[in-house]
Design goal:
- The structure holds two protein chains of two kinds.
- Chain A has 13 helices and 25 strands.
- By secondary structure, chain A is an alpha/beta fold.
- An eight-stranded mixed beta sheet of chain A has the order 15-14-23-22-21-16-17-20. Chain A has a five-stranded mixed beta sheet with strand order 2-1-5-3-4, with helices on both faces. Chain A has a three-stranded antiparallel beta sheet with strand order 6-7-10.
- In chain A, strand 18 and strand 19 form a beta hairpin.
- Chain A is elongated.
- Chain B folds into three domains: 211 residues, NADH-ubiquinone oxidoreductase 51kDa subunit (Rossmann fold); 90 residues, Ubiquitin-like (UB roll) (Roll), CATH 3.10.20.600; 90 residues, NADH-ubiquinone oxidoreductase 51kDa subunit, iron-sulphur binding domain (de novo design (two linked rop proteins), Up-down Bundle), CATH 1.20.1440.
- In chain B, a hairpin with a 2-residue loop joins strand 5 and strand 6.
- In chain B, helix 5 packs across helix 6, helix 6 packs across helix 9 and helix 13 runs antiparallel to helix 14.
- The longest helix of chain B has 18 residues.
- The chains are: A alpha/beta, B alpha/beta.
- Chains A and B meet through helix 2 of A and helix 13, helix 14 and helix 15 of B.
Chain lengths: 529, 438
Amino acid sequence: MPKVTIDGTVVEVPAGTNLIEAARQAGVAIPYFCYHPYLSIVGQCRICMVEIEGAPRLAIACATPVTDGMVVRSETSARVKEARDAVMEFLLANHPLDCPVCDQAGECLLQDHSFTEGRDTTHMVETRRTFPGLERRLLGPHIVQNQNRCIHCSRCIRFTQEISETAALTYKSRGNHAFIDTFDGQPFTDPFSACTADVCPVGALTIREFRFRKRAWKLRSTPSVCPGCSIGCNLWIDHHERTVYRFTPRENPAVNATWLCDFGRFLAESLNETHCLHPLHRVEGQLHRVSWGEAMRALALDVSAARTLRVVASANLSNETLFLARELFVRHLKGELVVPVHPGEPRRMKNGKGEWLYSRDAHPNSEGARRLGLELVDGERLARFLYGAADLTVILDPTAHPYLSTAEALQLLRVSPTLSLARTNHPTAEVASWLLPVASLASDEGTFTSSGGHVQRFQPAFSPAGEARPAWQILQLLARAMGVSALDLDSPAAVFAAMATKEKGFSGLEWERLGGGSPSTYREHQHVG
Amino acid sequence: MEPVLLRARGVPNSRHIDTYLAAGGYEGLKKALTMDPEAVTKEVLDSELRGRGGAGFPTGRKWTFVPKEHPGPKYLICNADESEPGTFKDREIIEYDPHLLIEGIAIASYAIRANTAYIYIRGEFVRWARILETAIAEARQRDILGASVMGSNYRLDVWVHRGAGAYICGEETSLIESLEGKRGFPRLKPPFPAVVGVFGKPTVVNNVETLACVPSILTRGAAWFASIGRPRNTGPKLYCVSGHVRRPGVYELPMGVTFREIIEEHCGGIRDGHTLKAFFPGGSSAPVMTPDQIDVKADFDACAEAGSMLGSGGVIVLDDSVDMVEAAANLAHFYAHESCGQCTPCREGSDWAMDILDRILEGHGRPEDPATLLRICQYASQGMTICPLGDAFALPISSIVKKFPYEFERHIAAATPRPPKKLPVLPWAGPRPGFDGQ
C-alpha cells in the first residue's frame, strides 16, 4: 500500500484513496464542499487545494489519488492557506450573511470553515448577486430552496443523477447566474428527495418538515435503525428534550451508505406519539389505572392460570423481545405464538457499492423472527389463529398487522381476556382487559435483523414517556413476577448474550460490536449525545 | 509564401469537390492510405506541427497518446467551435476549402484508427455547417468517405454536430460533454480525452486549422513543412487581424513573422491619425502586449517568452483612442457571461471583476480596485480552475491592470463615491398619520 506524508504524518492507505480520505486518516482535516465520499468527484469548489512536493501548482485533494512517497502539505503550507483564503472570499462574495436566520447554521460546512479559517473582512464592495423569487421556493413536497445561499457544489444534482437515478435536479442558466432547478420545472418528487438537503453543504436546500423546528446545535443524536421496512437503514435519531425531531442517515456502506428514503426519514415524527402512559386494567367495562407492581402480580396469576395461551407477536419487535416472548410463552408456558407480517409498499435503497436493495416487507425484523424459528403468518392465518378458543390472548404489538384493527378481529378478541401492549391509540384498547404502556423505538434498545442478514443494534435516545417501558422489559418483569428466574435478564445486552449462546442465527455475535455510532462513522457534523 | 491553407480563397467555385480534386486534392489522403497509420503519425510528428487551437500542443504527440491496443471505437473530433473573440480563421477555411478540412480529418482519423469523426461546429455557424454537410455528401458520393475510403478497406464516417453557442464548448472536454448531449461542463483531467474521451472512448480533438495543415504535410513531406518558420514553431499560420488597422482580415503567413510585419506591412498599419496602444497577440484570452513588443515573433515560443501567448492567432489591435479600462470591462463582460459556473474562482471571480470594472467606468472607482482586480485574477488562474477559462479571463485583465495602471488611476482620481443604494420604502414603514413629529 502506498505511503504518503501529510503535514508530517505518514499514513499507509490503499492505492486509489484520494488525499482527502488519506488526510482524514492522518488526522488532517482538509476542507471541502463539493466532495462527498459516496458521490462522483467534480473538483468544483476548489477549497481542498493542497501542495504536493515536486508539483509546480497546487492540486485539489479530492481528485488526487495517493502515490507512494507523496509528500503533501495542507495546513503547514502558506501557499495553500492563501489559496483557500481566496477561494473562501470568492465563495462568500455572493453568499448572504444570514446565518442567524438560516436553518443550516450549526451544521453548515461553509459556516464551519468560515468560522475556523475564514477572515472577517472582504474586498467585495459590489452589490451581491441575488436570485429574486428563488429565496424561499418549495422545490418539491419536502425541499425548500434558497438559491441565494447556493455555492454551486452540485452535490444535490449528482445525488439525483448517481444515487436516486431520477436526474430530477439540474443547473439552469450559466456562470454566476446558474441555479438549481428541477428538470422541466416539474415538482421534485424524488423518493429520496430529502437526501439532497443532507448533502447540501449550506442552507440552500432545507427540509420543509424540519426547518425552523430546532437549532442544529441543540440536537443530540442516538444511533438507531429505521423501522420503516426490512432493509434496515442505519440512522441517527436527532432529539432534544425527549422529543424526536428528525432522522438523519448514519453511514453503513453495506446497507444505506449515507442515505435514507423519504418514507423512512419522515417516520421520525411518529415516534413522538405516545398516548398510553400508564398500565390500565379493565374492571366492569372501565379501564382503571394500576401500578406496574399490581399489574404484574395480577398478570402473573392470569397468565399461569390460562390453560390455552395465544400470543400475537410482531416483526416490529426487537430480537431480544421476540426471544424473551418465545422463551416465556412458548417454551415455558406452552402457549402458541405467531408473528403476523404483511407486505408493505415496495422500498429500495442504494448501498455503498451502488447496488439497489429492495424490500416488500413493512417490518424491520421479519428476518429476526424467522431466525428465531417463529411462525410468520399472513392476515388470513392470523384470523384463523384468533378464531380458535383461548383463555388469554397476548398482543405484543397491536400495530403488527392491519387485521388487528378490523371489527372482525375485535369481535374475536372480545371473547376471552386480552392483554395488549400499547403506545398509541388503537382499536384493540376497546377490548383489551389489560393495557401496558410500551416505549417507542426512541426509548427502546435492542437489535433488528435486516433482510440482508445484518444484526443491527439500536440505542435508546431518552427514557420512555410516562410509565411506559420497553417491550423486552415488560416481558422480563412478567417473567420475574412468575418466578421464571432464567428469563429475569435485566438488560437487552444480557438477553442478547443468552440468545447468542442458544440460537444458531446469533452465535458468535457480540453486543458491543453490533454497530452503533463509532467515531469513524462518516458524518459531516458530530452532535452525538 | 504561396498560400497553403487559403490557396482556394478567390478561386471560383472553390468549395466544389471537382475544383478541389483538380487542384490536387485528396492526394495526401491517397498517400496516407498506402502508409501505416504509425508512419502517418510519424510524418506529422516530424513536421513539428503544433495545435492551432490555442494551446500549441504538438499534434503528432497527441495522436500517439491514443492507446493502440484499445478494443472498440476511437474517435476524432474536429473542433470548429471557433468562439474566441478576435478569431475567425476556421470559418475562412470552411468557407473556401471545406474539402481541405475533410481530407485532414480523414488522414488524422486514419492515423489514430478512428472510424468515426465529428466536426463540432459553433452553433452560430449555420452557413458553414451547411457548407460542411454539402462537402461531406460530395465526398461520400465519390467514395472518399464511407465504407471504403478511396477504395481501401478503411471505413470512415464524418458527422457535423452543431453546438448551442457556448464559448466554453470550445474547451475540448467541455466540447466532448456537449457532443454527448450533456451540459457543456469541462471535465477533470486526468484522464485525458486521448484515453477517455467522447462516450468514454479514446478521442483526439484537433482544431480546424491544425487538421487543414495535415494534407500538405503528407503531399509535400514533413521536411517542407518544418522548413517554414523556425524549429518547434513550424508551418503556415493564419493570423486574424481585427481592430484599428487599415486592412483587417485573415492573413496566411509563415509562422514566426513579427507583429510589426503583420500590422504594418500586411494590414497597412494603424488607421490614420492614431498610434498603436496595445494588441492582443492571440485572441482575447492572451495577455495584452504593448507597442514596444511589436518586434516579437508571432509564434508559440516567442509569445510565451514575451509573457503572452500566440493562442489562436487572433491579433486584436487597439489604437490610442481606446480606454483600456473599458477594454478590460468589455472582456470581463464576455468572460462573466461565458463562465460555465463550475469552479468557484472563475464563476465568482469573473462576475466580481466585471462589477468592479463597471463601477470604475461609472465613475465610482476606489483606490484599492486595481489591487483587488489583481488578487481576483491571481486566484482565478494558475491551476485554480478545472479548465483554462479561469486563466483566459484572469490573464488579459491582470495584464491590462499591470501595463496600464495610469488609466485606472485617471479614472479613480476623477471618481466620486457611489451614492448609497436607495432602499425601497416598505408600505408599512412610511410616515404614520398622527405620529410624524407631532
